[in-house]
Backbone:
Protein backbone atom coordinates (compact mmCIF):
# COMPACT_ATOMS: atom_id res chain seq x y z
CA UNK A 1 0.00 0.00 0.00
CA UNK A 2 3.01 2.32 -0.24
CA UNK A 3 3.56 2.27 -4.00
CA UNK A 4 2.68 5.96 -4.46
CA UNK A 5 4.22 7.26 -1.23
CA UNK A 6 7.59 8.97 -0.76
CA UNK A 7 9.18 7.69 2.45
CA UNK A 8 10.75 10.13 4.93
CA UNK A 9 11.48 7.78 7.83
CA UNK A 10 11.40 4.10 8.80
CA UNK A 11 11.44 2.43 12.23
CA UNK A 12 11.51 -1.32 12.85
CA UNK A 13 10.83 -3.49 15.89
CA UNK A 14 10.72 -7.19 15.11
CA UNK A 15 8.04 -7.71 12.46
CA UNK A 16 6.45 -4.31 13.14
CA UNK A 17 7.49 -1.57 10.71
CA UNK A 18 6.29 2.04 10.81
CA UNK A 19 7.07 4.50 8.03
CA UNK A 20 6.52 8.23 7.73
CA UNK A 21 5.69 9.64 4.30
CA UNK A 22 5.75 13.00 2.59
CA UNK A 23 2.02 13.23 1.88
CA UNK A 24 0.14 10.30 3.44
CA UNK A 25 1.08 10.45 7.12
CA UNK A 26 2.24 7.23 8.82
CA UNK A 27 1.75 3.60 7.78
CA UNK A 28 2.22 0.48 9.93
CA UNK A 29 2.99 -3.14 9.08
CA UNK A 30 2.74 -6.06 11.51
CA UNK A 31 3.90 -8.71 9.02
CA UNK A 32 7.48 -7.58 8.32
CA UNK A 33 6.48 -5.23 5.52
CA UNK A 34 4.30 -7.51 3.40
CA UNK A 35 1.34 -5.16 3.92
CA UNK A 36 0.82 -1.69 5.39
CA UNK A 37 -2.21 0.14 6.77
CA UNK A 38 -2.53 3.84 7.69
CA UNK A 39 -1.51 4.60 11.29
CA UNK A 40 -2.80 8.13 11.64
CA UNK A 41 -4.63 7.90 14.95
CA UNK A 42 -2.43 10.78 16.10
CA UNK A 43 -4.57 13.09 13.96
CA UNK A 44 -7.53 14.38 15.94
CA UNK A 45 -8.79 16.89 13.38
CA UNK A 46 -7.17 18.96 10.71
CA UNK A 47 -3.54 18.44 11.66
CA UNK A 48 -1.40 18.31 8.53
CA UNK A 49 0.01 14.90 7.62
CA UNK A 50 2.47 16.40 5.13
CA UNK A 51 6.12 15.73 5.98
CA UNK A 52 5.50 12.96 8.52
CA UNK A 53 8.65 11.49 10.12
CA UNK A 54 9.11 8.70 12.67
CA UNK A 55 11.89 7.49 14.98
CA UNK A 56 12.01 4.67 17.53
CA UNK A 57 14.14 5.27 20.61
CA UNK A 58 16.25 3.00 22.80
CA UNK A 59 13.27 1.99 24.97
CA UNK A 60 12.13 -0.49 22.32
CA UNK A 61 8.37 -0.05 22.32
CA UNK A 62 8.42 3.75 22.11
CA UNK A 63 7.97 5.51 18.79
CA UNK A 64 8.02 9.23 18.05
CA UNK A 65 6.29 10.99 15.17
CA UNK A 66 6.50 14.61 14.11
CA UNK A 67 4.58 16.43 11.38
CA UNK A 68 3.48 20.01 10.85
CA UNK A 69 5.60 21.16 13.80
CA UNK A 70 3.80 18.88 16.30
CA UNK A 71 5.34 15.93 18.17
CA UNK A 72 3.51 12.71 19.12
CA UNK A 73 4.50 9.67 21.20
CA UNK A 74 3.46 6.03 20.96
CA UNK A 75 4.31 3.54 23.73
CA UNK A 76 3.23 0.51 21.66
CA UNK A 77 5.15 1.23 18.44
CA UNK A 78 2.47 3.01 16.49
CA UNK A 79 -0.75 1.27 17.53
CA UNK A 80 -1.88 4.23 19.68
CA UNK A 81 -0.65 7.80 19.93
CA UNK A 82 -0.50 10.57 22.54
CA UNK A 83 0.07 14.24 21.89
CA UNK A 84 1.00 16.76 20.82
CA UNK A 85 3.49 16.35 23.67
CA UNK A 86 5.39 19.65 23.28
CA UNK A 87 3.94 23.17 23.21
CA UNK A 88 6.80 24.48 21.05
CA UNK A 89 6.93 23.87 17.28
CA UNK A 90 9.31 21.07 16.29
CA UNK A 91 11.83 21.78 13.51
CA UNK A 92 13.79 18.50 13.60
CA UNK A 93 14.38 15.42 15.76
CA UNK A 94 16.95 12.65 15.96
CA UNK A 95 18.49 9.99 18.20
CA UNK A 96 21.71 10.57 20.13
CA UNK A 97 24.51 7.99 20.37
CA UNK A 98 22.73 6.22 23.26
CA UNK A 99 19.46 5.90 21.33
CA UNK A 100 17.70 8.60 23.36
CA UNK A 101 15.31 10.86 21.48
CA UNK A 102 16.32 14.50 21.00
CA UNK A 103 14.29 17.29 19.44
CA UNK A 104 15.01 20.79 18.15
CA UNK A 105 12.13 23.22 18.58
CA UNK A 106 11.38 26.92 18.58
CA UNK A 107 12.37 28.65 21.82
CA UNK A 108 9.91 30.93 23.60
CA UNK A 109 12.72 33.46 24.01
CA UNK A 110 13.84 33.21 20.39
CA UNK A 111 16.35 30.91 18.77
CA UNK A 112 16.18 27.11 18.79
CA UNK A 113 16.01 24.84 21.87
CA UNK A 114 17.51 21.33 21.84
CA UNK A 115 15.80 18.92 24.27
CA UNK A 116 16.37 15.29 25.28
CA UNK A 117 13.42 13.07 26.24
CA UNK A 118 13.33 11.53 29.71
CA UNK A 119 13.58 7.75 30.15
CA UNK A 120 9.79 7.41 30.42
CA UNK A 121 9.21 9.67 27.42
CA UNK A 122 6.93 11.99 29.37
CA UNK A 123 9.29 14.88 29.93
CA UNK A 124 12.06 16.83 28.22
CA UNK A 125 15.07 18.75 29.46
CA UNK A 126 17.31 21.23 27.69
CA UNK A 127 20.75 19.91 26.73
CA UNK A 128 22.30 23.32 26.00
CA UNK A 129 21.15 26.97 26.03
CA UNK A 130 18.99 28.03 23.10
CA UNK A 131 20.96 28.42 19.88
CA UNK A 132 21.09 32.04 18.68
CA UNK A 133 20.80 33.24 15.12
CA UNK A 134 18.39 30.53 13.94
CA UNK A 135 14.70 30.95 13.19
CA UNK A 136 12.05 28.52 11.99
CA UNK A 137 11.29 30.62 8.92
CA UNK A 138 14.96 30.72 7.83
CA UNK A 139 14.79 27.29 6.18
CA UNK A 140 14.92 23.62 7.24
CA UNK A 141 17.03 22.91 10.35
CA UNK A 142 18.92 19.68 11.13
CA UNK A 143 20.07 18.61 14.61
CA UNK A 144 22.77 16.15 15.72
CA UNK A 145 23.56 15.28 19.35
CA UNK A 146 26.21 13.10 21.02
CA UNK A 147 26.33 13.40 24.80
CA UNK A 148 26.73 17.11 25.53
CA UNK A 149 27.85 17.92 21.97
CA UNK A 150 25.17 19.55 19.82
CA UNK A 151 25.17 20.80 16.23
CA UNK A 152 22.44 22.66 14.35
CA UNK A 153 22.53 23.39 10.62
CA UNK A 154 20.13 25.55 8.63
CA UNK A 155 19.96 24.53 5.00
CA UNK A 156 21.76 26.97 2.72
CA UNK A 157 23.44 28.90 5.57
CA UNK A 158 26.79 30.10 4.16
CA UNK A 159 28.21 30.63 7.67
CA UNK A 160 28.12 26.97 8.62
CA UNK A 161 26.30 25.13 11.44
CA UNK A 162 26.17 26.20 15.06
CA UNK A 163 28.15 23.86 17.34
CA UNK A 164 28.07 23.57 21.15
CA UNK A 165 30.79 21.42 22.79
CA UNK A 166 30.46 22.64 26.38
CA UNK A 167 31.87 26.16 26.13
CA UNK A 168 29.10 28.00 24.33
CA UNK A 169 27.93 28.19 20.76
CA UNK A 170 30.35 28.66 17.86
CA UNK A 171 30.17 28.47 14.10
CA UNK A 172 31.78 25.73 12.02
CA UNK A 173 32.31 27.52 8.69
CA UNK A 174 34.19 24.46 7.39
CA UNK A 175 30.77 22.79 6.99
CA UNK A 176 29.02 25.76 5.38
CA UNK A 177 26.02 24.74 3.30
CA UNK A 178 25.56 21.34 4.96
CA UNK A 179 21.95 20.25 5.42
CA UNK A 180 22.43 17.01 7.42
CA UNK A 181 24.75 16.35 10.37
CA UNK A 182 26.09 13.45 12.46
CA UNK A 183 28.60 13.19 15.31
CA UNK A 184 31.11 10.33 15.54
CA UNK A 185 33.36 10.99 18.52
CA UNK A 186 34.81 14.49 18.17
CA UNK A 187 34.24 14.54 14.42
CA UNK A 188 31.19 16.29 12.99
CA UNK A 189 30.09 15.00 9.59
CA UNK A 190 27.96 17.07 7.24
CA UNK A 191 26.21 16.34 3.94
CA UNK A 192 26.22 19.00 1.26
CA UNK A 193 25.13 19.53 -2.34
CA UNK A 194 27.22 21.34 -4.93
CA UNK A 195 26.86 22.04 -8.65
CA UNK A 196 23.17 22.99 -8.38
CA UNK A 197 22.40 19.92 -6.29
CA UNK A 198 23.74 17.37 -8.76
CA UNK A 199 26.74 16.29 -6.67
CA UNK A 200 26.56 15.00 -3.12
CA UNK A 201 29.43 15.33 -0.65
CA UNK A 202 30.02 14.19 2.92
CA UNK A 203 32.52 16.38 4.79
CA UNK A 204 34.25 15.68 8.10
CA UNK A 205 35.33 18.36 10.56
CA UNK A 206 37.59 17.14 13.39
CA UNK A 207 37.67 19.42 16.43
CA UNK A 208 41.04 19.65 18.21
CA UNK A 209 42.14 21.77 21.17
CA UNK A 210 43.07 24.78 19.04
CA UNK A 211 42.53 23.65 15.46
CA UNK A 212 40.09 22.01 13.07
CA UNK A 213 40.76 19.58 10.25
CA UNK A 214 38.30 19.18 7.42
CA UNK A 215 38.21 16.63 4.60
CA UNK A 216 35.89 15.14 2.02
CA UNK A 217 35.11 11.54 2.99
CA UNK A 218 32.56 10.79 0.26
CA UNK A 219 32.03 12.31 -3.17
CA UNK A 220 29.17 10.65 -5.04
CA UNK A 221 30.48 12.12 -8.27
CA UNK A 222 33.87 10.42 -7.96
CA UNK A 223 33.27 6.86 -6.78
CA UNK A 224 35.15 4.68 -6.06
CA UNK A 225 37.06 6.77 -3.53
CA UNK A 226 39.64 5.71 -0.93
CA UNK A 227 41.22 8.00 1.65
CA UNK A 228 43.49 6.80 4.42
CA UNK A 229 41.87 7.34 7.79
CA UNK A 230 38.55 8.58 6.48
CA UNK A 231 36.51 6.22 4.32
CA UNK A 232 36.78 3.16 2.11
CA UNK A 233 34.27 2.15 -0.53
CA UNK A 234 34.70 -0.81 -2.88
CA UNK A 235 31.91 -0.07 -5.33
CA UNK A 236 31.87 0.77 -9.00
CA UNK A 237 30.23 4.10 -9.70
CA UNK A 238 29.12 2.91 -13.12
CA UNK A 239 27.35 -0.09 -11.59
CA UNK A 240 25.79 1.80 -8.68
CA UNK A 241 25.09 5.42 -9.64
CA UNK A 242 23.00 6.25 -12.66
CA UNK A 243 24.95 8.29 -15.18
CA UNK A 244 23.15 11.56 -15.88
CA UNK A 245 20.58 10.97 -13.11
CA UNK A 246 20.96 13.95 -10.74
CA UNK A 247 18.49 12.56 -8.19
CA UNK A 248 20.83 9.65 -7.45
CA UNK A 249 23.65 12.02 -6.47
CA UNK A 250 21.70 13.77 -3.70
CA UNK A 251 22.23 12.92 -0.04
CA UNK A 252 19.15 13.07 2.17
CA UNK A 253 20.38 11.88 5.58
CA UNK A 254 23.47 10.60 7.41
CA UNK A 255 23.51 8.52 10.60
CA UNK A 256 26.31 7.03 12.73
CA UNK A 257 26.35 3.28 13.36
CA UNK A 258 29.24 1.97 15.42
CA UNK A 259 32.44 2.80 13.58
CA UNK A 260 30.69 3.60 10.32
CA UNK A 261 28.43 6.23 8.81
CA UNK A 262 25.20 5.42 6.98
CA UNK A 263 24.50 7.71 4.02
CA UNK A 264 21.04 7.74 2.44
CA UNK A 265 21.09 9.08 -1.12
CA UNK A 266 18.94 8.90 -4.22
CA UNK A 267 20.61 5.68 -5.33
CA UNK A 268 20.18 3.85 -2.02
CA UNK A 269 22.01 3.39 1.28
CA UNK A 270 25.79 3.54 1.58
CA UNK A 271 27.83 2.50 4.63
CA UNK A 272 31.15 4.28 5.07
CA UNK A 273 33.80 2.60 7.23
CA UNK A 274 35.48 5.38 9.21
CA UNK A 275 39.12 5.45 10.29
CA UNK A 276 40.47 6.43 13.67
CA UNK A 277 41.03 10.04 12.61
CA UNK A 278 40.35 12.36 9.72
CA UNK A 279 43.12 13.19 7.30
CA UNK A 280 43.14 16.85 6.22
CA UNK A 281 42.42 17.62 2.58
Residues:
Amino acid sequence: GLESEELLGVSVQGEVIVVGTRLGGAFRSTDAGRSFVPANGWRSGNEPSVGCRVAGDARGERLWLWAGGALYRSDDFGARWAGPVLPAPVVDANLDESGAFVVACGSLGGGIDVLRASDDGRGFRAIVPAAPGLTRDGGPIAVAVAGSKVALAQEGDPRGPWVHRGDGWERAPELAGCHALAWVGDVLYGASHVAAGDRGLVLACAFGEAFREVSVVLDLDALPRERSGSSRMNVSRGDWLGEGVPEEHRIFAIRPRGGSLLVACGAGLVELALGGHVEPS
